Each structure stands twice: as C-alpha cells, then as structure tokens.
Design the sequence.
C-alpha cells in the first residue's frame, strides 16, 4: 500500500533552508495498531514533529518481507534512529527482530567494512503493561526495561551507535485518556530533544 | 411563423433546452431554472414559438414526474422506506395539515367562502416533487438530513393528493359536482365500496405481481441479451402501471413509485434505473419547460402588485411553517434552513387541483387564473431561492455538505463496486464481505445473478462496462471499484473510461497476462493483478517443498521472485512505446531472469536474506585467523 515515508503532514522537512534531510527516523512496529491506544497517540504526535521520517514497518511489510535495500537507504539518510514498539513477553515484536536480522547485515552495519551506522544515535521508545514498580529489583519482573532490552543495546554497540536510555511508558493497561495524552506529549518532547541535540 | 409540425415543435423544445440549460448551469443556477427560463422564452407569452400546444405538452411531460417517482422508488428499498415512516407521517402530515389550515385561513381572511378557501389551502400545501428532488439530487443534498426530510414530506404530499382529489367534489356546489375531471375511468360506475376494492386490488396487483411475476419476466427478457428489449419492457411496465392507476383513480406517480419500491430489492434494479433514466430526464426537462411556458406574463403585468404579493405571501408563509417544523423535529439550524428553502413553492399537483376545482365550480376562473400564475412563479423562484441560500446564507452559518451518517441515506450503495463476479471477482467479493466491506456487485450473466441472489447475496444484473449502469450503481459515491471481468478488452475500456471520468476513484483491475497488464499499467490504476501469478507461485512453493526445500525458505524465495517479476513488468510497461526497444528489453529481461536463476543455483533460496547467511562473516574470520593467530573477536556473530 502507500508508503508513509513521504508523509504529507511534515512540511517543515521539505523546507530547504532547514536541515537538508530529516535527521530523525522513527521505525514503528505495532502488530495490532487498530487495538492500540497509547502507541496510536504516540505515533500521531510523532508524525507531527517536523524533521521526522515516520516509517510504519507492519504497514510496509505485512508479510515480513522486508526490503533490505530500502531500509538501509533510510538508515543512511538519518542519524537519529528511534525504535518505537510495544513490549510483548519482555521483548520486541517479531517485526523488529526480523528487521534487525535482515537489515543489519555483515559488512554494512558491522564487521570490518560495516561502518554505515557508526556514530548514529539509537533510542528505544517502548510501552509496557505493568507499572514501573514491577520493573525494579523488588518488583515482580525483577529487572528494568533497559535490562530486558539489552540485546538492542548490544546491537547498537556492535554497530558503533550511541545508545540512549530507553523512553518508557509504564502501566499502559491503567492509562486513561489524560494519561495517554500526557504520554504522547512527553514522547513528542523527547523526540524534539533528540532531534535538536548536537 | 407558427408551425404545428412535429419536427418544428421538437426542434424548438430541444434547442431551448440545449441552449438555456448549459447557460444556467454555468451561472450556477442549476438545470431546473434553465429549463424554466427556456420555457418562458419560447412560451406563448414569450416569443410565442410554442402555442396552445403547451398544455398538451404538459400532460406528456407530467409523465416525467411519474418516471422520476419510479426511479426514486427503485432507489428506496422497503426497509429504508420503513425507517423513514416517522418523518413521512409525522413531518409530512404536519406540513400538509398546518399549511392547508394556514392557507385556508388566509384565503378566508381575504374574503373567500370556506369551501374555496379550503381548496386553495390544500393546493398550496403541496410542494413541487419534480423541482425539489431534481435540484436536491443535482446538488448532492439528498443525503443530508434536510434532503431526507424534504423527501419524506414530498412523499407524504404525493399520497395526500388522492384524498384531496376525493374531498374537492364534496366542496362543490351540488349542481356542478357531477362533472368529472375529464378522465373516464373503469371505476366511474362503481359504488364507493367498489372503488375502494378496485384500488386495493390494483395496489395488491403491483406488490404481489412485482414480487412474483416481474422478476421471472425480466429474467427471460435479460436472457435474450437484447438491451433495447429490456428498455422496452421497462417502459411498458411504467406505462402499464400508470394506466392501471388512472383506471382506478389513483395517482400514476404513486403507483410507479410503489412498483419501484417493490423492484428495489431485485437484481434488475440498476438496469431498470439506467434504462429509464434518459426518458425521465428528457420528460422532466420538458415538464419544466412547460411550466415555464405557462407563465402568463400578460396576466402578471395586469395585476403585478397582487400577483407579487400573493407569491411572496405563499413563499413566506410556507417558509416560516417549514422552519417551525424543522425546529420541532430538531434539525440543526443549517439543515432547517435548507429544508425551508427547498419546499416553500407550490407544486405541479397545484395545476391539477386548481384545474379540477375550477371544473367542478369550487373556484371561479377569476380566482384560479391568478393563482395558476402564482403557482408557476413560486416554482420558478425555487431554484433562485436555493441558489441564494447556497451562495449567501449557507456559507454564513456553515452548511455541512456532507452527511455524517451514511446509514440513513436514500441511496444505499456499497463502498466498493465489483464489476464481474465470475471465479475471479467472487473471491474478491466474498473476501471483502467477510471483512465487513459493503459491496455492490454487477454481473451480466443472468443465471449466475439469479443463483447468487438465491444464496442471499446482493448482486445486480447488467453489463458492468456501461457507464449509465455504473452511474445507477452509485459510482460517484463508491470509494473503489474492482474490475474483475474476464474479457481483457472490456477491462481496459472500462478502466480507461473510469480513469477519465472519476479520477478520484481507486481502480483495481484484473489482468489476463503480461501484455494485458502492460496496457493497464499505462492507466496508472491503484492496482493491476495478473490473474494467475499468485496461484502459480503458490503452486511453485509447494512443488519446491515437495522437492525437499524448507517451507520458510521456499516462501521467501517466492516473495523475491514475485517482487522481481513485478519490477520487470513495470519497467517494461514504461518502455513499451518503442516497440523495437520493447523487444530487446524483453529479451534482455528474460536473459536477466535466466542469469538470476543461474546465479541462484549454488544457494538457490538464501540469496536475498544476507542477514541470515553467515558466509561473509566466516570469510572475514578465516581472513583474520590467517593474518594473526590471535583470539577471535568477541562479536555477536561468532555463534552464527
């Protein structure tokens, strides 16, 4: 279907006097977008941030058949990468893993010749159903979200990327309208800060 | 100058229409006003090109109203009619009742006896179905709440004409009451209960006959595959019902409306609609011209003050009553205003009622003639009023042109039109329906249509490549069309026509083979689908697996193959203009495909998914090992 990379609602990215290219690439992976509440609000907010390329992986690749060339070109064109996804079973949706497997190839992303991602920044923007207390040493899940996402952190390290403290919305099952709006607002602020940081 | 020759008359009418209507439309006034002006110009009180024949023309042209009601009936399924029963009876009943009372009151104040006053009140309670519906449809306002309400009121008025015609003789001075309305009917000699019985029998005949006899009859006619025969049968049906209704003393428009509703759920609905449409349009135009021609400028000039005053009084009083009703029925301000601006005129039935009332002596000619002028003036002013409303008033209060609730609309077509329902189209259609997408299916195999409908599917008979049929099926309102016909020529022709006339529509087209797909790709449709590609690839995957390939690898290989194939197809379509180049590129592409297949041989399926292929990584390691025999790097790839 339609690729939203050339989104219509980001006129600022088309103004030549600004950055010649959008710096910030959001790779969005949600297998059940229709049923989502928090990520719908976050995605809507993110699409409105100028200088952002929003790329919906489940919409672009409904059959997981990722276009590696296209994905690598997108990564090359941006220097701030955001992986936005809900956490299921303490991990990423399968699309994110599929994307890592196929796009971060040896000789491109890592290895002796693999320098394409070196120096770029990576931020994980995730949501979790349980409350923040559950992700503490005394809590039910014992470790933090950042620890659950260690594989991504290691991936970033291998590719020479700068890894940021994840942006986490906790306790999504308890969030109501105001909470969701607040989550979207703080996500927008985080994206703008990431975009504008030197 | 006068010539009674048929050709001369036809020439004058057609020329007037062809000249005046485009001018009126260009000025944004709508076709109705164009016809009215054309009529006034050529009429006996204008240039005098058409003379006393005007009244005869009026009678013929009234048949356009009959046909319009048939078409409206076709678009109105019984379930929808049932849903509108509240507005029809409540809103319609109140409108007719209150306006009759108010009109009679005013007439009595002006010194008329109560009988004449009541006749005048009834006359002016009615609005013009022809002018209002034509204008609402042309502007696309039928789907708005105001359009729905206006339609409900007009429908009630059409029904109310019958008791009005029955009541008028009771108001007449005893001596004159015996004079009929000029029509001799079969039921003239019958007593009251006999007439009622005849009416009931006629209505029953239409409802039961429509359900049981008409569909098999149309199936036989459709089976001959002669389009003109179908058109003839449609006209025969409308004329026959009109005749039957006249014989039992009912309104022909109401009878054909009923027949339309009965046939609204049949598979022939859209075919009937598109066959009758040109006749309806022409006759309605003729009707509007006749109304324009009946404007007696002499009479108006003789008593301009009185006529203008009465016209203003009728329009103003009806307008205020309609606004009151709109408020009562909780329409929004914008919808209420549109509703009131649509219906304040008197209608075509006013001519009938006034004529009848005069003939039986309820009204004198000295009263009726100015009133006829007033009726014609209010009708002629309606398109002007609506234009004023559209241009000056609606923008100030923000009229919403789009309906919020598509569920309550008169037109109930699907969001997706499926043209052709053979083995290809029926899979698409079943899939869409299973996922809750509303579809309108058109197919020209009457046996298949019959079978599918017996299975409970909504399928309509007709040749889906005909624009008029697509029009009747609601192509303007559809969001997408699936062209799944099995004749590539027809697919191409239809896709090209739709691309031209409906650039906003998403078109999905079935292609037979590569060559066919090329032609379709040139049209830049939403999607072009070669009918065997996916199935043969799926078969290929299964064969690969039977040969011992892993399932997932085979599946991904098929994806890669399809992507390559589609890319090739698009590239070739773009280059096809130059035939010579086409052939060389085609050969080059085949060579490339061969090369690709050759290249795939050593590792046939994993070539694309480099991320899962550790070959390069292992090469890098062994390189490092030979260079210096130090420990391996600790990178993540070591376990691959």
Sequence:
């Amino acid at each position: 279907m339609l690729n939203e990379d050339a989104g219509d609602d980001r006129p600022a990215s088309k103004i030549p006097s600004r950055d010649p290219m959008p710096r910030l690439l959001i790779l969005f992976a949600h297998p059940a977008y229709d049923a989502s509440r928090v990520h719908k609000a976050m995605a809507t907010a993110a699409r409105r941030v100028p200088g952002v390329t929003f790329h919906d992986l489940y919409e672009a690749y409904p059959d997981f058949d990722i276009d590696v060339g296209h994905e690598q070109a997108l990564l090359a064109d941006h220097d701030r990468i955001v992986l936005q996804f809900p956490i299921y079973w303490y991990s990423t949706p399968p699309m994110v893993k599929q994307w890592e497997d196929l796009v971060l190839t040896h000789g491109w992303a890592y290895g002796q010749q693999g320098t394409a991602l070196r120096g770029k920044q990576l931020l994980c923007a995730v949501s979790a159903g349980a409350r923040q207390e559950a992700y503490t040493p005394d809590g039910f899940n014992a470790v933090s979200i950042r620890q659950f996402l260690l594989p991504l952190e290691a991936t970033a390290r291998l590719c020479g990327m700068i890894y940021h403290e994840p942006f986490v919305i906790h306790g999504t099952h308890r969030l109501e309208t105001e909470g969701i709006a607040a989550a979207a607002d703080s996500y927008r602020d985080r994206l703008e800060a990431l975009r504008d940081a030197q | 100058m006068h010539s009674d020759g048929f050709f001369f008359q036809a020439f004058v009418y057609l020329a007037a229409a062809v000249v005046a209507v485009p001018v009126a439309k260009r000025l944004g006034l709508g076709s109705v006003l164009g016809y009215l002006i054309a009529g006034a110009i050529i009429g006996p009180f204008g240039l005098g090109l058409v003379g006393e024949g005007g009244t005869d023309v009026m009678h013929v042209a009234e048949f356009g109203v009959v046909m319009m009601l048939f078409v409206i009936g076709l678009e109105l399924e019984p379930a929808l009619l049932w849903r509108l029963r509240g507005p029809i009876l409540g809103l319609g009943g109140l409108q007719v009742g209150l306006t009759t009372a108010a009109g009679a009151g005013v007439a009595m104040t002006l010194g008329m006896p109560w009988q004449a006053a009541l006749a005048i009140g009834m006359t002016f309670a009615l609005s013009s179905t022809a002018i209002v519906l034509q204008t609402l449809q042309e502007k696309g306002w039928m789907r708005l709440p105001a359009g729905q309400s206006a339609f409900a009121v007009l429908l009630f008025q059409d029904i109310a004409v019958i008791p009005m015609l029955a009541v008028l003789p009771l108001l007449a001075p005893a001596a004159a009451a015996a004079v009929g309305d000029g029509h001799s009917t079969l039921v003239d000699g019958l007593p009251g209960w006999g007439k009622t019985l005849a009416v009931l029998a006629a209505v029953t005949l239409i409802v039961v006959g429509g359900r049981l006899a008409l569909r098999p009859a149309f199936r036989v006619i459709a089976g001959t595959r002669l389009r003109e025969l179908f058109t003839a049968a449609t006209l025969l049906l409308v004329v026959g019902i009109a005749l039957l209704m006249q014989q039992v003393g009912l309104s022909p428009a109401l009878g054909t409306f009923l027949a339309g509703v009965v046939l609204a759920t049949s598979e022939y609905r859209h075919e009937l609609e598109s066959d009758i449409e040109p006749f309806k349009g022409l006759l309605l135009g003729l009707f509007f011209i006749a109304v324009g021609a009946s404007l007696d400028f002499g009479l108006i000039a003789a008593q301009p003050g009185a006529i203008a005053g009465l016209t203003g009084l009728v329009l103003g009083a009806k307008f205020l009553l309609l606004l009151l009703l709109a408020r009562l029925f909780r329409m929004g301000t914008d919808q209420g205003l549109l509703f009131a601006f649509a219906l304040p005129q008197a209608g075509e039935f006013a001519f009938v009622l006034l004529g009848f009332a005069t003939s039986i002596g309820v009204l004198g000619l000295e009263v009726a003639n100015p009133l006829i002028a007033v009726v014609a003036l209010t009708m002629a002013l309606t398109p002007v009023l609506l234009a004023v409303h559209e241009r000056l008033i609606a923008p100030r209060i923000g009229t919403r042109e789009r309906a919020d609730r598509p569920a309550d609309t008169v037109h109930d077509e699907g969001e997706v039109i499926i043209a052709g329902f053979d083995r290809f189209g029926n899979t698409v259609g079943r899939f869409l329906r299973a996922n809750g997408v509303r579809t309108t299916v058109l197919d020209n195999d009457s046996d298949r249509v019959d079978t599918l409908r017996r299975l409970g599917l909504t399928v309509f008979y007709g040749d889906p490549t005909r624009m008029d049929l697509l029009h009747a099926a609601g192509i303007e309102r559809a969001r997408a069309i699936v062209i799944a016909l099995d004749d590539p020529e027809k697919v191409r022709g239809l896709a090209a026509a739709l691309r031209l006339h409906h650039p906003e529509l998403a078109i999905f087209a079935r292609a037979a083979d590569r060559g066919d797909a090329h032609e379709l790709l040139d049209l830049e449709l939403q999607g072009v689908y070669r009918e065997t590609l996916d199935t043969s690839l799926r078969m290929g995957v299964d064969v690969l697996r039977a040969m011992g390939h892993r399932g997932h690898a085979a599946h991904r290989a098929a994806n890669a193959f399809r992507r390559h194939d589609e890319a090739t197809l698009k590239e070739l379509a773009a280059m096809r203009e130059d035939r010579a180049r086409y052939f060389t590129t085609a050969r080059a592409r085949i060579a490339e495909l061969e090369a690709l297949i050759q290249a795939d041989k050593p590792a046939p399926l994993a070539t694309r998914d480099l991320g899962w292929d550790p070959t390069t990584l292992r090469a890098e390691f062994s390189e490092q090992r030979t260079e210096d025999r130090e420990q391996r790097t600790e990178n993540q790839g070591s376990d691959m």
In short: Helices of chain A lie at 38-47, 57-60, 68-77, 94-103, 145-148, 150-158, 177-196. Strands of chain A lie at 24-28, 52-56, 80-86, 121-127, 162-163, 167-169.
